Each structure stands twice: as structure tokens, then as C-alpha cells.
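Quick one, probably user error.
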């Protein structure tokens, strides 16, 4: 077989270039110890490295999220611990004020300190994070969560949305605790009321304290309103709303003594019975016991065209109210100067009114609730006027309202009057019960933060193990074995030298070298 000089040179050059390229590539690999630089180096390995790189990016994001959550949980826990300490001091003041030796002036001094505690609580509950966002406002970080109303009560302006961040492939965690959950949902132990005939102060029955929330909800609510009257000087009687005699469910079957500070327990509610005058007649003396009726806090919409405000609200039709009035909050929206619609809040593009109506004078009645407004001919309602309505069912109570009520009770002088003293003691008992409930709610929130922190630590350990495994797997696929690379490089260098020598030897065999 004949090989032309051109073929020989082309073959030799190609062989030399191939060997030289191999040496260069292996030299670079020996320098960087990276085996896979492009998909051509190892198609399967490159694909796997791409997947591992994506996982590494997600793990890095999970770490950033866990760091964020740890910081926010730590700040929230610190604030809640401060609030717990403040509430404990309020509890000490309330207990101290029950001292029989305290005068009105002493109690008013305690009330002054409670006023400072109230301001301190408001400040803590409106705490911000390092980015200037309110900690307890839910997803509405730029909205002040708690504000004081004109009547001294407090309103929560945030929402109930928790902000969740992923910390694992199938795990997310809330970064925040909402003010609604922490401060608004403390069980209200003073949500019953007693009204009575012959309110001459000779015989008094306190509003009562809920001692068993389960019993109250399962039995008390179903039988109200109750009538409490006296069969004799040693026996009271309780009749439920259907006319059934349920006295046997009261303490000692309704047996009483002619004295003071007697506890009457009935279906989860504790009341205090006082005979301020042992000779007081009992015949015809009747009390009505029931849960406090729902109340409403109404505020003007910020963009209302008119300056009209509500001056009063009341339930006029309990059946319609319980059937259709939105729970929690609602919006009363006027479609003209006399017509209106009631919506569940918040109003969205898909919202439909739950009821509609027409003004009668200065009142608008929607879903069994009557709203009285101060509209006049000079200042009428306008199409687009909105009123935001929050419903207070008295099931729960904001801890700020609890401290405010305690302050008011201590500021009210008794002047040694037995009835006023009993009213104040009842208010103090209610306040202490609600303080304990508020402390429990805050403690539950701190425990929730601790639980999330523990889960976060566990997930962090799992993520760190995944990061280590990911790094090792990437290294096994991408990185080179130094000994293998150096052996291969030596072989390729020898092959390159051999191709050079072979070219020189064969080139010397040409015809011109024989002339």
C-alpha cells in the first residue's frame, strides 16, 4: 500500500494535535483537579451536577429563611417576655388593692401605676422589627396593630395572616405571631351579667365569673336567660329560659344563708350573693342572669365623602342577627343618601351584600342590628359612605381592655359604701380572672415560639446534613483523583513525545534524503 507524502504529513499532524490536546486538557485538570467542566466531559455527570446545584441553591435559601425566622422569633419572644413581666406587675397591683386596709386613695395610687402599665403594654404590643415593620400586625406590617378608641377601649387593626417561609422541601414555618392570636383571644371570664328588680342594694347578686368555659358553652348558653328568685330566706330558685326549674344544678341545690360573700355556682358561672340587710324582704326580688349581649364598635371609612358618624347601635331582632349578620366584622355601605347594603368584611370584587335596606329617619337596620347616625339635611349621607363594624361577642377580651377596666375600677371611690365596695370587688375579681386568662394566652404564644424554635433546630440539622451530602456527591462527580490525573498526564506526555519521534524518523525516509 502506498502512502503519499501529503497523507503521511496530514496523519502525523492529526495524531500530534490529538495527543497535544489531551496533554493540555489533562494538564488543566491536574492544575484545577476538576474533571467535569462542560457537559461534553461527562454528559450524565454534568446533568447530575446541575440537579445537585439546584438543590444546593434551595438549601442555601432554606438557611437564609431559617436565619430570618430565628431572628423574628427571638425578637417576638423577647417582647412577649417583657409583656408577661408587665402583666405580672399589674396582677400584683390588683391583688394588693383588694387589701381590706386600703383606702380609696391607696387604690387610686395603684390605678395610677396601672395607667403607666397600660401605656407600656400599648407600646410593647406595637413593637417594630429592625425593618420598621410592626411585629404583631400580621401581614399588614405598615399598619399600627393596636389603637385606643375615643371611649378608652382598644381596636386591633392588623389581620390574622401568618407569614410563612419554606425551611425544607415539604416544610414551611410561620415567621410571626399575630396580635389577634396573642392578645385578642384571651378568654373573657366576665361575660355574664345580672340585672334585677328592687335594686335597692339590700340584696345584691354579682355579674358572675366563668369558672368553666366548657360547662358555660355546653350548658349555660343553651338555657339563658335565667330567672333567679327566692323561695325563702334559705333557698333560691333558678328557672331557665324555657321555664324549667334547674336549681338542682346550683351550689348546694340553691341553699343559701343570710349573710355576705356567698358564692353561688351554676353551670360554670360563679356569682357572689350578699345580704347587706338581714331584714331585707326577699318576696318579689328577682334577678335575670344571661350572657352579655353582643356590642359593636363602628368607625367611619377613611375616604367617606360625608362627615356623618354613628351615635349608637343595638340588636333589635336577635333571630335575624344570629341568622345573617357577619361574624367578626362587617361593612355598612350606603348606595345613596337613604339606601344601604351590609357586607362581610373585607369587601372584594366578588362580595355580595348579606342584607340591604332603606334609612328610616336617622336609623339604618341591617340583619337585625339598628345603627343610629347623626345625618342631617345640612350634612346628609352620600353614596359611597362606608362604616366599618367590628362585633364584640365578649367571648374574648384584649389584655389592654382588661388593664384599662382594672384601672377604672380602682379609680372609682367607694366612700365606705357596702354596695359600691361589692361592685368594686366584683370588678376586681373579673379583672384578675381576665389578667390570668391574658397571661395564659401570652404564655401559650411563647410556648408556640419555643416549639417552632425546636422544630427549626431539627430542620436546620437535617438541612446541614443534606448540604454535606450534596457537597460530597458533587465532589465525587466533578473532582479528579490526583494520582489518576498525574498517571494519565505522564502517559499522554510520553505518547506526545513518541509521536514527535515517530514523525521525525519517518520523515527522514523520504526520497530526497536518498539523493
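Nope, works fine. Designed sequence:
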Amino acid at each position: 500500500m502506498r502512502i503519499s507524502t501529503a497523507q503521511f504529513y496530514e496523519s502525523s499532524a492529526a495524531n500530534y494535535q490529538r495527543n497535544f490536546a489531551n496533554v493540555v486538557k489533562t494538564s488543566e485538570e491536574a492544575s484545577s483537579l476538576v474533571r467535569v467542566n462542560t457537559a461534553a466531559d461527562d454528559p450524565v455527570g454534568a446533568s447530575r451536577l446541575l440537579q445537585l446545584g439546584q438543590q444546593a441553591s434551595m438549601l442555601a435559601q432554606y438557611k437564609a429563611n431559617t436565619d430570618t425566622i430565628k431572628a423574628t422569633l427571638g425578637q417576638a419572644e423577647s417582647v412577649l417576655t417583657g409583656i408577661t413581666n408587665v402583666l405580672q406587675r399589674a396582677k400584683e397591683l390588683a391583688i394588693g388593692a383588694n387589701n381590706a386596709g386600703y383606702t380609696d386613695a391607696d387604690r387610686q395610687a395603684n390605678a395610677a401605676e396601672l395607667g403607666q402599665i397600660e401605656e407600656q403594654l400599648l407600646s410593647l404590643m406595637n413593637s417594630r422589627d429592625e425593618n420598621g415593620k410592626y411585629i404583631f400586625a400580621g401581614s399588614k406590617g405598615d399598619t399600627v396593630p393596636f389603637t385606643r378608641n375615643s371611649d378608652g377601649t382598644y381596636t386591633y387593626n392588623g389581620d390574622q395572616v401568618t407569614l410563612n417561609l419554606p425551611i425544607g422541601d415539604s416544610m414551611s414555618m410561620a415567621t410571626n405571631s399575630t396580635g389577634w392570636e396573642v392578645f385578642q383571644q384571651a378568654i373573657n371570664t366576665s361575660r355574664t351579667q345580672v340585672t334585677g328588680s328592687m335594686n335597692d342594694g339590700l340584696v345584691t347578686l354579682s355579674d358572675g365569673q366563668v369558672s368553666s368555659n366548657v360547662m358555660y358553652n355546653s350548658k349555660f348558653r343553651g338555657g339563658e336567660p335565667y330567672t333567679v328568685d327566692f323561695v325563702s330566706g334559705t333557698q333560691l330558685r333558678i328557672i331557665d329560659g324555657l321555664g324549667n326549674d334547674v336549681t338542682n344544678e346550683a351550689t348546694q341545690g340553691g341553699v343559701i344563708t343570710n349573710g355576705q360573700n356567698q358564692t353561688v355556682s351554676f353551670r360554670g358561672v360563679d356569682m357572689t350573693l350578699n345580704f347587706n340587710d338581714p331584714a331585707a324582704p326577699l318576696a318579689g326580688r328577682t334577678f335575670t342572669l344571661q350572657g352579655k349581649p353582643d356590642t359593636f364598635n363602628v368607625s367611619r371609612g377613611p375616604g367617606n365623602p360625608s362627615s356623618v358618624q354613628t351615635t349608637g347601635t343595638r340588636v333589635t331582632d336577635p333571630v335575624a342577627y344570629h341568622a345573617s349578620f357577619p361574624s367578626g366584622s362587617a361593612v355598612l355601605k350606603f348606595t345613596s343618601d337613604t339606601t344601604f347594603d351590609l357586607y362581610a368584611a373585607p369587601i372584594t370584587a366578588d362580595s355580595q351584600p348579606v342584607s340591604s335596606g332603606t334609612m328610616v329617619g336617622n336609623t339604618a337596620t341591617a340583619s337585625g342590628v339598628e345603627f343610629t347616625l347623626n345625618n342631617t339635611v345640612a350634612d346628609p349621607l352620600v353614596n359611597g359612605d362606608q362604616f366599618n363594624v367590628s362585633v364584640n361577642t365578649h367571648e374574648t377580651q384584649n389584655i389592654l381592655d382588661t388593664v384599662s377596666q382594672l384601672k377604672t375600677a380602682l379609680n372609682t371611690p367607694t366612700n365606705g359604701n357596702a354596695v359600691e365596695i361589692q361592685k368594686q370587688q366584683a370588678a376586681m375579681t373579673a379583672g384578675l380572672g381576665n389578667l390570668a386568662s391574658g397571661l395564659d394566652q401570652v404564655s401559650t404564644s411563647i410556648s408556640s415560639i419555643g416549639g417552632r424554635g425546636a422544630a427549626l433546630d431539627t430542620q436546620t440539622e437535617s438541612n446541614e446534613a443534606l448540604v454535606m451530602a450534596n457537597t460530597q456527591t458533587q465532589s465525587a462527580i466533578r473532582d479528579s483523583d490526583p494520582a489518576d490525573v498525574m498517571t494519565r498526564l505522564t502517559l499522554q506526555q510520553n505518547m506526545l513525545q513518541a509521536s514527535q519521534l515517530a514523525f521525525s524518523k519517518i520523515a527522514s525516509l523520504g526520497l530526497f534524503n536518498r539523493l
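Residues 418-478 form the longest helix (61 residues).
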